[in-house]
């Protein structure tokens, strides 16, 4: 893979929490090396308010965030993806659209904080835990020497990142 800005698509079924947070984190951490997007197979149509509150509280730009269908990224005029990561088991098991250019794919499954139960503080904690896991995985991903390693090694690395609950310590 060449030294360029890579397009990354994060997928979940509802595109209301995990994939939205991943998109936001990667765009904040990208340093111009990555352009992150998110989508869902059956989008909720709204971003979960707890996700927006957390992202805003942590200083992320939430303007323009919206829940959208993965169909937007399968169109001929859509950005060509270099990486596609599924974040929920449902999306990983679904038949995805054909992504032009054969992007590298991996499953980075995490529990859905939007279905967390308990009192409000416990539900907010589920979002914070998901954010932390995503940030750790994304920091590990952005530290990979993508342009200088072969495709098979890169695939192994992105798969390993998805299997790690705590890839890096929180900075």
Please provide a written account of the structure.
The protein is of the alpha/beta class. It has one domain: Response regulator (Rossmann fold). It contains five helices and four strands; from the N terminus they run βαβαβαβαα. Strands 2-1-3-4 form a four-stranded parallel β-sheet. Helix 1 packs across helix 4. The longest helix is centred in the C-terminal third of the chain and has 23 residues, at 120-142. Mean pLDDT is 89; it is low at 166-171.
Figure out the total of helices: 5
Poorly predicted segments: 166-171
- What is the strand arrangement across the widest sheet? 2-1-3-4
Largest sheet data: 4 strands, parallel
CATH class: Alpha Beta
How many domain modules? 1
Q: Categorize the overall geometry.
A: globular
How large a portion of the residues is in β-strands, by DSSP E?
A: 5-15%
The radius of gyration computed from the alpha-carbon positions, rounded to a whole number of angstroms, is 15 Å
Order of helices and strands: EHEHEHEHH
Q: How many strands appear in the DSSP assignment?
A: 4
> Based on the structure given, which CATH architecture is correct?
3-Layer(aba) Sandwich
Average pLDDT level = 89
CATH superfamily: Response regulator
Structural class: alpha/beta
Question: How far is the first residue's CA from the last residue's CA?
Answer: 29 Å
Helix content: 25-40%
Looking at the structure, the CATH topology is Rossmann fold
Question: What's the structural blueprint in terms of helices and strands?
Answer:
Elements: E1 6-12, H1 18-29, E2 34-40, H2 49-57, E3 83-86, H3 89-93, E4 104-107, H4 120-142, H5 151-163
Parallel strand pairs: 1-2, 1-3, 3-4
Helix pairs in contact: 1-4
């Amino acid at each position: 893979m060449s030294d360029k800005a890579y397009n990354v698509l994060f997928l979940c079924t509802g595109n209301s929490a995990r994939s939205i947070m991943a998109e936001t984190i990667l765009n904040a951490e990208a340093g111009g090396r990555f352009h992150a997007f998110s989508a869902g197979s059956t989008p909720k149509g709204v971003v979960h308010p707890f996700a927006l509150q957390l992202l805003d509280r942590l200083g992320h730009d939430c303007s323009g965030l919206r829940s959208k269908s993965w169909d937007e990224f399968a169109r001929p005029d859509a950005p060509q993806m270099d990486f596609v990561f599924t974040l929920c088991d449902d999306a990983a098991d679904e038949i995805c659209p054909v992504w032009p250019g054969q992007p590298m794919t991996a499953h980075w499954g995490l529990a859905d904080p939007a279905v967390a139960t308990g009192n409000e503080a416990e539900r907010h904690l589920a979002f914070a835990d998901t954010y932390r896991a995503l940030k750790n995985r994304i920091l590990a991903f952005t530290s990979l020497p993508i342009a200088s390693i072969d495709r098979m090694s890169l695939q192994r690395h992105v798969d390993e990142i998805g299997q790690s609950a705590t890839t890096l310590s929180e900075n």
